[in-house]
Amino acid sequence: MRRLSSVQQKIPCVFLTEVKEEQSRKRHCQQFQVVATENVNPVALEADIDGALATEKLDGTCCYITVYKGQPYLWARLDRKPNKQAEKRFKKYQHTHRSSKGFIWSVEEDFKTVPETWIPAHRVKHHNGHPVPDEHGHIPGWVPVEKDNKQYCWHSSVVDYEVGAALVLRPNADSEDLLEIAAVPLGALMEQTLELIGTNINGNPYGLGSKKQPVHCLVSHGSVRIRNPPPVDFQQLCSWFQESPEGRVEGIVWHCNDGTLIKVHRHHLGLRWPEKEAYFSERSVVIHVDGTAEEYNISKDLFASFSRLNGHRFSRIQDIQFDP
């Protein structure tokens, strides 16, 4: 299997988009809506979208695994954003010019401070030694997830740095219909981006765990394939999302052979998300977390809880529970 591209930047939509002056379906505070036209994006055509690998776009928060303190580490997404004054100036310019092109930033003065450990994402452009904001006015980047940082406690729950492993939800090697949760060496995930999903992430659209027993895990981007994807056609995609059981997903991300990533989100097509019964929630899962509680830092942590379920199979991932 070829190595899939990591998600470091905003991914373009498979269709050309336009802005409508109406309340966003995706962001409550946003007073405009970005919607798809029926015209396929030339970027997608140039990347041979028809020959691309279609994968499920999962609804969580983006993470990255790379070296920190001399060992593989989980990093959380942290985009550097403008301060209030700069944001106001930027929005006014956008409204006047209907575009952000030509807007001039002063990165040193216009942006909020970030931790010293922050690094910009791959392919962020630089000018005079400073990272340059994208068309949304953000500088995508990452911060390492350390165990004592309460802000990233749910990120921390899926990694054990002493053992050097992460809890990963992935397709089972022997059955494409079955998912598995496994403790995967962090070294085997180096330079990959993954989606953190679970109880306390983005409203938990997949129904994982509960307040009493939170369940979180990482899913490598591109690992969940769509077996019978619809053609890249506006009407056929709309029909697939609305009528096919496999279409009860947040969106599709196409991994093109040249490394280009292309996506479509249900909101682009004017469709609702989340669905009451997401397709991903209904999939069967088996637990493959070997070891004992003594191997992990805390007997009540997520690794130990899953290790006590080693070999157990659930008919749906939303049925995972630790107590009988």
What does this structure look like?
The chain has 324 residues and is of the alpha+beta class. It has three domains: 1-54 and 225-273, no CATH class; 59-79 and 146-223 and 283-324, no CATH class; 84-139, no CATH class. It contains six helices and 18 strands. The mean pLDDT is 89. Keywords: ATP-binding, Ligase, Nucleotide-binding, RNA repair. It catalyses: ATP + (ribonucleotide)n-3'-hydroxyl + 5'-phospho-(ribonucleotide)m = (ribonucleotide)n+m + AMP + diphosphate. It is an enzyme of class 6 (ligase). One of its GO terms (molecular function) is ATP binding.
* pLDDT < 50 stretches: none
Apparent shape: globular
**Rounded Rg:** 20 Å
Oligomer: single chain
Number of self-contained structural domains = 3
Order of helices and strands: EEHEEEHHEEEEHEEEEEHEEEHE
Largest sheet: 6 strands, antiparallel
Strand content: 25-35%
Class per helix and strand makeup? alpha+beta
Count of strand segments: 18
**Percent range of helical residues:** 10-25%
Overall mean pLDDT score? 89
Q: For the terminal residues, how far apart are their CA atoms?
A: 38 Å
Work out the helix count. 6
Strand order of the largest sheet: 6-9-5-4-13-14
